[in-house]
Amino acid sequence: MIAFAAAGPGFNMDESIDWAIEQLQLGHETPHLLMLAGMSKPVNYFETAPYLAKALEELHLEEKRGEEAIVSFCGYHIKKIARGQDVFRNLTQLYPYYYQFDMDDLIHDFVYLYWAWTDLDYDGGQYYLPGATADNIQGLVVERAVLWLAENQ
CA torsion sign, 76 to 148 to 93 to 41? Predict the structure, then answer.
């Protein structure tokens, strides 16, 4: 969440609602976290961003900018993938950042995994990853996320 402003209006602010709920469950309670957690999805970026900015301020979290922000954003979704949480949805969240922010070295493998998975869903075949099938693609994505975290955290 500390990288949301760097992503701009393309950032899925619904993620901030989930984050606020997680923070409350961890025992962090601030007025703006409560406001975020009480919002119904889908939310509008421009209506929600000020609440998120204030919640970060209340928690004394410094907002990241530039490449550091994008790496943080990617890491957030890759951690969720490594835990097996909404694997395809989190993989889909990474995909636009590959092109938008030239993250070739950082998330290249995840783009190939995304392409393979979407092709497998479309017609059952894919040419990006030898041996990847509809039965094992989710496991391959999770394995790559675990390895990425070991290399980049």
Answer: negative
